[in-house]
Amino acid sequence: MTTTYYTYYNSPIGKLLLAGDGDSLAVLGFPGGKMQRRHEPHWIEDEAAFKQVTAQLAAYFKGELQVFDLVLAPRGTDFQMSVWQALQEIPYGTTWSYGELARRIGKPKASRAVGAANGRNPIPVIIPCHRVIGGSGKLTGFGGGLETKQFLLGHERVRIQGAGGHHPTAATYFNLTLGFQPPFAFCSGCDSRFCGNQNTCCNP
Nearest-CA neighbor of 137 among 89, 179, 83? Predict the structure, then answer.
């Protein structure tokens, strides 16, 4: 029986569960939403087993990394695996519709099934299911909550727009680009989202 190790990573979108066999990452769990995950009682806590994962997540949230380079071990059906593989082809800072994702895997009439597989992605953020939106442009649902999806898309687009030297804050992105105030606060110092109702920064 394979031993499962885990740790928690404090990110701008809350405390993320990381789990795997010590060599690969199998799970990234959100603190809330439909894909909320907590560790199992028999798992072994080992922060050192996830040093590379946490280092790349930190670089991503700082806007310094756009493509993850990690050994991943998601578990799913062949169809789900094909969807999760295609998700990793969506460029940073851009979005595809569910229909486009279905076409990319050669199943143009399977948008609904693709959406279901997208929602079962066990390693979100790193396998970027947040970059898939409805055909009308609506964000639709997200396993970590719609606020988290809004944050991740805003975070990436801010960095893309700021590549020429101007770096607007995430809060400015939501207000000016999307036309509304986000339903959460940002730290003025590091531009991270506040965690829950706490008045302290998630990422000091």
Answer: 179
In the residue annotation, 129 being an active-site residue is answered as yes
* Residue 14 host element (H or E): strand 14-20
Name the one residue in this structure whose structure tokens are 């998601």: 74
Q: Give yes or no for residue 30 having a pLDDT over 90.
A: yes
Residue 176 pLDDT > 90 = no
In 3-state terms, what secondary structure has residue 193? Answer: strand
> pLDDT band for position 166 (50/70/90)?
very low
Return all residues near 106 (Cβ < 8 A) that are at least 6 apart.
none
Choosing from 129, 187, 195, 202, the catalytic residue is 129
Query: What is the Cα–Cα distance from 87 to 35, expressed in whole angstroms?
Result: 17
Distances (CA, A) of 142 to 4, 49, 106, 139, 198: 26, 28, 24, 8, 23
Dihedrals φ, ψ of 31, to 5°?
-80, -15
CA 50 to chain centre: 17
In eight-state DSSP terms, residue 186 is B
SS3 20: strand
Domain range 5-61, CATH architecture: 2-Layer Sandwich (3.30)
> In whole angstroms, what is the distance from residue 46 CA to residue 50 CA?
8
State pTM to two decimals. Answer: 0.80
Contact 28, 123 (CB under 8 A): yes
Which of these, 96, 126, 136, 92, lies nearest to 114 by C-alpha position? 96
**pLDDT reading at 202 higher than 70:** no
